[in-house]
Amino acid sequence: MDNRNASPSPARWFRVLRRTMTGESHARKSSTSSQYEEILKKSREAFLSGKTKSCPFRLEQLQAMVNLLEQHEMDFVGALEKDMHKPRFETILSEISTVKNEAIFAMNNLEQWMAPEPVQKNMTSFLDRCFVQKEPVGVVLIISGWSLPVQLCLIPMVGAVAAGNAVVLKLPETCSHTADLLQTLLPLYLDNNCYQILSGEHIELLEILEHKFDHVFYIGDHKTGRQVMQAAAKHMTPVSLVLGGKNPCYVDKSCDLKEAAHRIAWARFVNAGQNSLAPEYVLCHMNIRNSLIHELEMCISEFYGKNPQDSQHYGRMASLDQYKRVKDFLSCGQVVLGGQTDEGERYIAPTVLIDVKETDPIMKQEILGPVLPILTVETLEEAIQFINKRDRPLAIYVYSSNSQVISEVMQKTSSGSFCSNDSIVQSLYTRLPCGGVGNSGVGIYGGKYSFDTFSHSRACLLRNTAIECVTYLRYPPYAEKQLHLMQWATSISRTDKWCHIL
Length: 502
Fold this sequence. Notes:
By secondary structure, the protein is of the alpha/beta class.
């Protein structure tokens, strides 16, 4: 019997479909891999040409980034309003001004950063020239975050450009209007050969990382951060990871609760809570918990009115997935303030929780939303123990009028950054580094620290060949007298006069 015209069985259809899909998948992967190879080849050629290394070129590109932000300020305001209902005030302060300040700070100091750094010498090198030369590492891959899309894309890029590297910038998939604007504008202002932009939903991060870069900078979640580190390790590529964490906020009985509540509420609810430096939970004594909640309630009403959903000063979740993830946290503990949600608008009200358990999901995952759990402790020591039982966070905050309390928390804990009597504002200081420690990240950036992150410190020794009075002592045949003289010439003491004089 001829079965050629018979209908294929379901199993056969599945096998055909699987072969077809697998073939398409391989073809697509081959196509995108070829695209990434071409981008990397173009970037490598641009770097090897030496174009990115000159100080005038770096200054020109940094100024171009400032021009981009100044000339398209309202475009970014509009894009972020569409993506996150972000108020103009927040966009200009946290996205535009911070990046402009970073670029201008780099321009003001670039010649000094690029200059050779002399080092102390000893007897064996007193006629030589010893210095450290900062060199660009090469082609840098920056994988930016979405919560502050302009800032988290461009501040690392400022450092990479200032250090003289070629850059491949992967834009976030979330906040698509802002990402599209960056993809459109950056090539109009920056050198298209030296700086490549990747954007779109179909870009596979792990496929990109199959190719060798000279440094990978990643801002995002822990799971992807581990994958980035593993992929980079195959090529021995150094990485910087900014991963966030559970930032504790200890409120001491001695602090001004009204002032503390204003600063905590602003830090937790600005950008609708989508900031990895925001306080993740509050630790306070039971005696002040209700007073603190009352002050927070007053702050929310003062900031956003009786119904924050109607406020022009309050944002929204950046995506539906983010909305659903944060909404699930509302089932933890008891809602005492807020709790209202609207999926159509991706709206979650400024919310305060109590009676949260240590085992609840909200105490194990980064929130990145407008929800603040308040937990109680009996003593400062208990608060410190609570903090130290967990992974080291990106930031620790303390509110107290007692300097001894602040000092004790700072000395007995560890975190990426530390701030007393305020929150988040440490990130606005260009002379302070940003970055985590342990589970909250690897490496630092911001200001001079970005320049150093994307630079190689090359040890340089230019020897003087005129005098052989010391160097001959190292040659065989060896003798005890030679050994003693060499030890004397190379030893370092606690008060080494040669080190200070030379």
